[in-house]
Amino acid sequence: MLKTMLKATVFAATLAVSAGAFHAPAFADTVYNRGSAAEPESLDPHKTSTIYEADILRDLFQGLVMQDAKANVVPGAAESWTVSDDGTVYTFKLRKDGVWSDGSPVTAEDFVYSFRRLEDPATGAEYASMLYPIKGAEDANTKKGKLEDMGVKAIDDHTLEITLNAPTPYFLEMLTHQANYPVNKASIEKLGADWIKPGKLVSNGAYTLAEWVPNDHIKLVKNPKFWAADTVKLDTVNYITTEDRSSAMKRFEAGELDSYNDLPTEQLADLKAKFGDKIHIGPYLGTFYFAIKTDKAPWDNVDLRNAISMAIDRDFLAEKVWQNSMLPGYSMVPPGIEGYTPSMAKFADMAQIDREDEATKILSKLGYGPDKPLKMQIRYNTSENNKNTAVAIQEQLKPLGVDVSLINTDTKTHYAFLEQKGDYDLARAGWIADYKDPETFLGISRAASGNNYSRYNSPKFEEAMNKAAADGGQPEKRMKDLADAEQIMIDDVGNIPLLYYSYKDIVSPKLHGFVDNVMDVHPSRFISKD
Amino acid sequence: MLLYVLRRLLTAIPTLFVIVTLAFFLIRVAPGGPFNQERGLSPEIKANLEAEYGLNDPLWLQYGHYLKNLSHGDFGPSYNLPDFTVGELFARGLPISIQLGASALVLALLLGCLLGTVAALNQNRWGDYAVIALATAGSTIPTFVIAPIIQLVFGLSWKLLPVGGWGGGAMLNKIGPVLTLALPQIAIVARLMRGSMIEALRSHHIRTARALGLSDWSVVVRHALRGAILPIVSFTGPAAAALLTGSIIVETIFAIPGVGRYFVDAALNRDYTLVMGTVVVIAIFTIVFNLIVDIMYAVVDPRVRYD
User: Which residue from A115, A378, A410, B204 has the fewest beta carbons nearer than 10 Å?
Assistant: First the structure.
C-alpha cells in the first residue's frame, strides 16, 4: 500500500515536472528569427532607401498610414482622414492613444517636424522625393523655398493638414514608405546622431530596438506602449543578416532562421523539390529592363529598337537563366496593381519564331545583313545572373547577324556611367516599386527624370503623362491615361522591358500571417509563431 | 634592442603616411561615388548628400581634413552605414576577427609544426606521405568549398555545430570558422616545417649531437627545432596580419560580424572612409607583425643581433 502510494506520488511528481516542462515554452517569449539577405544601411527613416531597411522600420515605426499583412493601406498613427473635394487637402486625425515608446503622445507637430526634417537639405535624405507631392516640399529640399512654407500644418495636437500641389491618388500609398515615418524630436535634439542607437531609439511602432550588432543581428522587442500591443503576438523579432544565400538555406534547414527573404536562383529547382510549399515565389512589383540609347544613331531608329526588343526570347531568359524566379515581361509596369492593366508590346502574343523572322526582315530592310552586321554593346553591372542574361541575348541575336559585345563593371561604376549619360548601346537596369502605382514605373521614362538612362524624349508621352496628372481627381480615368502613356512608350521602345521580378521567400510552417503579396511586405505585428 | 624597436616604429609613420595618401587618391580614381546606385538620385538630392559629407569640397581640402581627423584617431563616418562611424565598426568587428584569426593561427602553428616534424622524421614513409597528401589537399581546396562542407557535415548532418552566426561569441559558433581559416594555414606550415626540419636534421650540429649520443627527443626538440622554426617565424608575420584582419569568404559564409567583409564591400560601395579605415588597419597590422617577426628572429636565432 505504502509502496503504491509512493509510486503514485512519484508518478504525480514526474507528471507535474514533465507537464511544467511541456508548458514552459508557452510562457516563454515567442522569438521570430527573421533572416535577411542584406544589412540595413541605416535605421534613421530619413536616411534609408532599401527594402531590407523597410522591413525593420515598418516594425519600429508607424506612419500616418501603414500596410497590413497583404500590403493594403490601413490606418497607422492616424485613425481616420478626409480628403477635400479637389483632392489636394488631406486632413488626418491622429489616434488619441498613440504614444512614443517613452510614453509621450504622438502629435501632429511630430509629423510637421519629421516631414520638414526629411526635406531639409542638411539631412541629405535620399528619399526626400517621397513627399514631393506636398506643396513646397520639393522647393524646400532643393533650396528654392523654406521648410516653414511646406504644406504641412498642425491644426491641433491630433489634427494634421497636408496640402498637395495637385490631386495625387497614390499619396496614401506613398505615405506607407519608411521615409515618411515620424521621428522623435526630443530625442534627436537631445542625443544628436546617437538617437538611433539601441536602447536609446524612441519609436512609435509595435517594436522597439534592443540590439544592433552590425552584420550579425538586430533585436526588436515588443513595445508594450504600442496602441495595438494586445494584438502583437511575437515578443522578440531578430533580424539576422546572412548575405550568403546558400548558407541561409542551410541555416533555415537547421532551424536557425524561421524565414529568409531571398533564394539562391541557381538552386531554385532543387530548393522547390526539397522544401515544397515552404518556398514562396510570386509576382513582385519590379521590372528588369534594358535601357537603349534612343538619342544616338543607329538606336534613334524606332524600327531598329523594335527589332532588337522583338528578337529577345524572354521565355528562355525567365525559364533557363533565371530558373523561373522571374516572369517574361513585355511592359514597364508589372502586373499586380489594382485597377491598372499594363500596356504590352505588340509582339507579346507572337510566337518567338515569328518574332525572329519579323526582326530579321526589319534588319535587312534597314540594310543590315551578313555583309554589314549590326554591332551592339551590352553593359551590365557584374552579377552571375546579369552576365548569363547578357550572354543569352548575345546568342539569341547572333543568328540575326547582330554582333553583340559585352562590358561589365561593378554596380557603382555602372550607374555612375549611366547617370552621367555615358555612351552605350544597351544597358541593364531594374526598377522596384516604392509604392503601388504605375507612376513609379512610368516616371523614369520622362525626359526630366534622372533615371531616364535611355534619354527617351517623346512629346506625345509627356503629354499623356501630364494628362494623367491632370486627371488625378478621377482615378479610373487616370489609370486609363497612364496605360495610354505606357503604350506610347512601349511602342516607341523607349526602354526594353525583359522580365518581371518575383518575390522569393522561404518560410517555416510554424509562422502564421506571412501572407504573399506583390510588395513582399510582411509586418511582424501581424505574424505569429507556433 | 629597445632603440631598434623605437627606430622601426618611427619609420612606420612615414610609411603609413605614404600608404594613406596613395589609398586616398586611388579610391577616388575609381569611377562612381558612394551615392551612385540602381535608383539614381536627382542632382539636388545628391548635392545635399555630398554637402552633408563634405564631398563637394576640393579634393586637397578633403584630404587635409581627413589627415587632420586621422591624426586624432577619427576615421570619420561610414557613407554606406551612416549610423556608425568607421571607428565604431572596427571597435565592434575587429575583436571578433582577431579572436577567430588568432585561434586559427595558434591552431595552424601547433598542428602544422607537429605534422611537419612528424613528416620530416618519417621522410619517404607512409607518415610523410599522409602529411604531404593532407597538406596538398589543405592548400588546394579553397575555403569557399571547405566552409559549406563543414556547415553540411557538422551543422546539418551531425547537428554538432550551428550552421552560421556569431551567437554572441559562443564557443560552438567559432569552431567552424576557425577550422576553415586554419586548414589552409596548417597545410602551409606543415610543408614549410617538413622542409626546414629535413634540412636541419641533415646539418652538422645535429650529426654532432647524435654522435654525442643524445636522445632523439632531445635532438629534435632542443637542437633541430630551433633552426627549423625560422622559416615559420617569417611566415607567421604576414600570415598573422592577414588572419587577424578577417576573411571575407569565411565571414560571409558563416555570417560572422567581423571586419573581413569591409575590405571588399567598402571598395565596391565606394565607402571612402571605410576603405581608408581598412587600409590603415591592415597597414598597422602588417607593420607591427613584421616588427614582431624581426624581434622573434633575434630571440630564436642567436646569430641575429640588432644593435
Answer: B204
pLDDT of residue A15: 40
Distance CA B290, CA B298 (A): 13
What is residue A511's DSSP assignment?
E
Q: Which residue has the cell 525583359?
A: A498
What would the pLDDT profile of B1-28 be if each residue is shown by its tens digit?
A: 788 889 989 999 999 999 999 999 999 9
pLDDT reading at B125 higher than 60: yes
At the fourth CATH level, which superfamily is domain B94-300?
A: MetI-like (1.10.3720.10)
d(CA A219, CA A212): 6
Selected for mutation to probe chain A from B55, B163, B248, B250 (highest A CB count within 10 Å) is: B163
Computed over every residue of chain B, the mean pLDDT equals 92
Lowest mean pLDDT among A17-31, A56-70, A461-475, B36-50: A17-31
pTM of the model: 0.90
CA dist A269 to A115, A189, A274, A390, Å?
A: 46, 52, 9, 22
Cβ-Cβ contacts under 8 Å, A193 against chain B: 83
Among A51, A58, A126, A74, which residue's Cα sits nearest to residue A518? Answer: A51
Residues of A in contact with B51 (CB under 8 A): 121-122, 124
CB A198 within 8 A of CB A212: yes
A468, burial (CB in 10 Å: exposed 0-12, middle 13-18, buried 19+): buried
Q: All 3 cell numbers of residue B200?
A: 636541419
Which string of b and e fits A105-122 if b means at least 16 CB within 10 Å? bbbbebbbbbbbbbbbbe
Neighbour count for residue A199 (Cβ, 10 Å): 9
pLDDT at A209: 98
| Residue A297, helix vs strand vs coil | coil
What pLDDT does A22 receive? Answer: 40
Q: What is the mean pLDDT of chain A?
A: 93
Rounded CA separation A491/A339 (Å): 22
- The residue extents of the domains of chain B are 94-300
Q: What size, in residues, is chain A?
A: 530
Picking from B49, B163, B270, the nearest residue to A250 by CB comes out as B163
Query: Residue with C-alpha cell 565598426?
Result: B89
Question: What is the DSSP annotation of A134-197?
Answer: BTTHHHHHTTSS-GGGSSEEEEETTEEEEEBSS--TTHHHHHTSGGGS---HHHHHHHGGGGGS
Torsion sign over Cα A231, A236, A242, A243: positive
